[in-house]
Design brief:
Pfam families (chains A, B): cNMP_binding (PF00027)
Largest interface: A-B, 31 and 31 residues
Strand content of chain A: 15-25%
Number of strands of chain A: 8
Order of helices and strands of chain A: HHEEEEEEEEHHHHHH
Radius of gyration of chain A: 18 Å
Helix content of chain A: 40-55%
Distance between the termini of chain A: 44 Å
Number of helices of chain A: 8
InterPro entries (chains A, B): cNMP-bd_dom, cNMP-bd_dom_sf, RmlC-like_jellyroll
Oligomer: homodimer
Protein name (chains A, B): Crp/Fnr family transcriptional regulator
CATH topology of one domain in chain A: Jelly Rolls
CATH architecture of one domain in chain A: Sandwich
Organism (chains A, B): Arenibacter arenosicollis
CATH class of one domain in chain A: Mainly Beta
Chain lengths: 190, 190
DNA sequence: TTAACTTGTTGACTTAAGTTAAGAAGTCAA
DNA sequence: TTGACTTCTTAACTTAAGTCAACAAGTTAA
C-alpha cells in the first residue's frame, strides 16, 4: 500500500531514503463502504485523502439538485477546500465504491514539513502541477459544447462512465441528465 | 513599488525582515505598452509576472477564434503553464493596457527557495489558495447559465467590463459576442 | 479626408439544451 | 414476490444560444 504513494510522489521528485521514512512514518489508512459520506455540507474538515483504491465524488446541492464537482480515483488527492479552517464545507464527499485511502491532516503535515523540508517543496510542485491541469480543464470546458465535453471525457476517463451514474456525469458536464441521454443517442447514430 | 508585493504576500504570512530582504533582493520590473504581447503560442517561457499596474489577458486560438482564458489585473500573478519547461506555450499573453510587472523566473526562484525556505512554504500556501479559488470558479461556471455567469462577473469584477472588449468578455464567459449582446439587452429590459 | 477595419447591435433562422411528464427496466428491501 | 425507488429514455414543447448576414458607430491609417 505504502508503495503506491511513493510511486505517485516519485513522478515529481527523487525519493530519498529520508523522504521514504517520512512518508512511512505518517502513513495512516482508512476504508470506506460504497455510499459512505466522508464530508457533509456544513461540516468542518481536518483530513485529506490519497486514494489507493476506489472512487470519491464531490458535489453540492443547488436548487434541490446534486451538482457534481469532481470525481477522484486511484492515485489522486482529495483536499477539502476548508481543511484546517474554521469555515464549514460547501460540499459533500461521497464514496461511489468501496474505497481505501491514505489519510493526512494539516497538523501532521506541518509537522512533517518542519522535519522534512523536501516534503514541502514537493507539495508546492504538486500543487502547481494540479493547478495547471485544472486550468487546462477549465479552459477546455469553456470553449467546448456539451457534446465535445462528453467525447473528451470518454477519451480521457472512460472508466468513469462505468463507475458513476448518468445523472452524476451529466451535472459534471454541466448539463441535465436528459440532455446527456440525447447526446449519447445522437452519437450512436453517427 | 516593492511594497505592493510585500502587501500581497502579507495576506498569507508574517513578513519577516529576512523575507523582506529576499523579496527586495530579487525585485526586477518591466513595463509594457497596451497591445504588447508577452508570450506567443509556440514560444518557450522563462518568466512569470506579478502585476503592479495594468491588465493582462491570456488567450488561445481555436477555429480561427480567440478564446480568452483569463484576465489578470493588479496584485495578481501570471504564471505561464510551460514556464521553465521545454514545451511550447499553448497560448498568448497580451497587455490590454499599459502594464507594469514584477518579473520572476524559475532559476532565480529556486535559488531563493534554497536561501529562504520560508519563501517556498509561502509559495505552497499561495498555490493552494489559488487552486481552491479556481476550483470554486470552475464549479460555479459549470452550474450556471451564460446569463448567470455574466451577472456574477458584473458583481465580482465590474471593472473588467471597462477594460476588455465585449468579444473578449464573451469568450471568457464561454459564449459568442452576439449572445452577450443579447443578454445585456435582455437584462436592461428587466 | 477618405477608406479600411474594429466593435457592437440587430434580425432571421437553425440547433440544441432545458422543462415537464410519462413510462420502461433494473434494484432493493419489506 | 411484490411494491417502492432509482436510473435512464423518450416525447412534446419552450427557451436561448449559435450562425449568418447586414449595418451603424467609432477608430486607425494611408
Amino acid at each position: 500500500m505504502k508503495s503506491k504513494i511513493l510511486k505517485y510522489l516519485s513522478k515529481y521528485t527523487e525519493i530519498t531514503e529520508q523522504l521514504e521514512n517520512a512518508i512511512n512514518e505518517s502513513a495512516y489508512f482508512k476504508s470506506y463502504k460504497k455510499g459512505d459520506i466522508l464530508l457533509k455540507e456544513g461540516d468542518f474538515s481536518n483530513e485529506c485523502y490519497f486514494i489507493l483504491e476506489g472512487c470519491i465524488r464531490s458535489y453540492f446541492v443547488k436548487d434541490g439538485e446534486e451538482k457534481t464537482i469532481e470525481f477522484y480515483t486511484e492515485e489522486e488527492v482529495v483536499t477539502p477546500s476548508n481543511i484546517g479552517k474554521s469555515t464549514p464545507s460547501q460540499y459533500f464527499l461521497e464514496c461511489l465504491e468501496d474505497t481505501v485511502v491514505n489519510v493526512g491532516n494539516p497538523a501532521l503535515e506541518n509537522e512533517m514539513y518542519q522535519k522534512y523540508p523536501q516534503l514541502e517543496s514537493l507539495s508546492r510542485v504538486i500543487a502547481e502541477v494540479i493547478l495547471t491541469k485544472q486550468q487546462e480543464s477549465y479552459t477546455a470546458f469553456k470553449s467546448s459544447t456539451p457534446e465535445e465535453r462528453y467525447l473528451q471525457l470518454l477519451k480521457t476517463r472512460p472508466n468513469l462512465l462505468q463507475r458513476a451514474s448518468q445523472y452524476q456525469i451529466a451535472s459534471y458536464l454541466g448539463i441535465r441528465p436528459e440532455s446527456l441521454s440525447r447526446i449519447r443517442k445522437r452519437l450512436i447514430n453517427k
